[in-house]
Specification:
Blueprint (H helix, E strand, L loop, with lengths): L12 H8 L6 E3 L24 E8 L2 E8 L10 H19 L5 E6 L9 H18 L5 E5 L8 H8 L2 E5 L9 H8 L9 H8 L1 H6 L5 E3 L3 H14 L10 H9 L9 H8 L6
Parallel strand pairs: 3-4, 4-5, 5-6, 6-7
Antiparallel strand pairs: 1-2, 2-3
């Protein structure tokens, strides 16, 4: 009996992972019953979570061995700390070891994160660097597929992780950017970036514009079934001929063409990064 379709965005990280993997194959690693928490939050008056907001599960997708890593955006804005980052990096590293041992383990990354956890600062940054290295290693063997849906989006160092993925799937509700709207407003002023201007924010970093400008490969509706279909499409493509992160000459040329004395807007972004001329 086919699964009834449902919103992907409204699911928790754990349920997103469970619904994507083949029925009955979900097996969580270091689940909340292991009580692995961040040691840095409670001393700062923050209630920790037993999984530190990071869900790692193994199972099968479309009948093939798969590891799925899902960030819980509800906990501390999906921020990355020492423990959550170590869980993600280790899972990717073990998937690469599987592939080197002849077990073609697929990897799915569900991004719902504001980036590094400020309360853990350098520890979070170091963990994100390990994640970047692990993605680059693993994507030599199998496509590493990222999905960002909403409502937190994908920002900070984890937006770089999304950019390193072999393929990236987004919804229209998703957002993707190096710096979050509130960070830009705080540092550059409201005249530069009004974090409460939602139409402007989505016109610059929303899933639809990121897809149209070539920073994402597939855009889907907010639907579990549509997300799963997009994942299958990416997997069927195999390893991409050209990775976005290897095409730096193209992007540097585009960035150098920007007149920074003028306020950037959606039209400027479209004119510079419009889909069609990237190899």
């Amino acid at each position: 009996m086919p699964n009834r379709d449902m919103s992907f965005i409204e699911l928790s990280a754990r349920e997103r992972a469970r619904r994507i993997l083949d029925q009955g194959s979900f097996r969580e690693l270091l689940d909340p019953f292991e009580k692995i928490t961040s040691p840095w939050l409670e001393p700062q008056g923050i209630v920790p979570e037993f999984d530190d907001g990071m869900v790692v599960a193994k199972g099968k997708f479309n009948g093939k061995p798969t590891v799925i890593i899902a960030i819980e955006g509800v906990f501390q804005g999906g921020s990355m700390g020492e423990v959550s980052g170590a869980k993600m990096a280790a899972a990717l590293e073990l998937a690469a070891e599987d592939n080197r041992s002849g077990i073609a383990t697929q990897a799915l990354l569900l991004f719902e994160t504001g980036g590094v956890r400020l309360q853990e600062a350098n520890l979070g940054l170091a963990a994100i660097a390990d994640i970047h290295s692990a993605i680059v290693d693993l994507r030599r063997y199998v496509p590493v597929i990222g999905i960002t849906a909403g409502t937190v989006g994908c920002f900070g160092g984890m937006s770089i992780a999304a950019g390193l993925c072999s393929y990236l799937v987004v919804t229209r509700e998703a957002r993707l950017g190096l710096n979050g709207p509130q960070v830009i407003e705080q540092e550059a002023g409201i005249e530069e970036y009004n974090s409460r201007d939602r139409p402007f924010i989505w016109s610059m970093t929303g899933g639809e514009v990121r897809y149209k400008n070539g920073f994402a490969d597939i855009i889907v509706k907010d639907s579990v079934n549509d997300v799963k279909t997009a994942i299958i499409q990416c997997m069927n493509k195999g390893l991409p001929d050209t990775l976005r992160s290897d095409d730096y000459d193209y992007y540097l040329q585009k960035l150098n063409a920007i007149d920074t004395s003028k306020q950037a807007d959606a039209t400027l972004v479209k004119n510079i990064f419009g889909r069609g001329d990237r190899k």
